[in-house]
Design a protein that fits this description.
This protein has about 140 residues and is α+β, with helices and mostly antiparallel strands. The chain folds into two domains: about 30 residues, no CATH class; about 100 residues, Tumour Suppressor Smad4 (Sandwich). The chain has two helices and eleven strands; from the N terminus they run H-H-E-E-E-E-E-E-E-E-E-E-E. The longest helix has 24 residues. The radius of gyration is 19 Å and the shape is globular. The relative contact order is 0.16.
Length: about 140
Amino acid sequence: MNEEMDLTPAEEEAVEAVEEPIEEAEEEETETRPRLVLKRDGAETEHVFPFACPATIGRFDPSVGPIDVDLGGEPEGSYVSRKHAKITEEDGVYTLEDLGSSNGTYVLKEDFEKVESAAIEDGDEIALGNARFVFHVG
């Protein structure tokens, strides 16, 4: 960075001091926002999908319009409808609702149960078709 912009060491230090809090704030924001973490082979992956409620989950398609959580770029996206499910929040209670998906929406209780609508909590495992996620908040 110093060669490109010809910054003095003091100027470079000032830039770094500004950039570090921004990076930390972005990490903190992601950690406090609700998010879905993709699960593969029984373990959570590094694929994290933060969102703000209400959030529509699916695969982007120009004929359907924007999606809040776009899973089209993941191999598991082939199991997910264009507008598969929605997560809403009211008074601290999160609800997962199926939007008429082809492959169903499931919540892991004792076993995976197909749901039309269900309350979900931090750490709950959900499946959209055959794509599995862990829901996290906070």
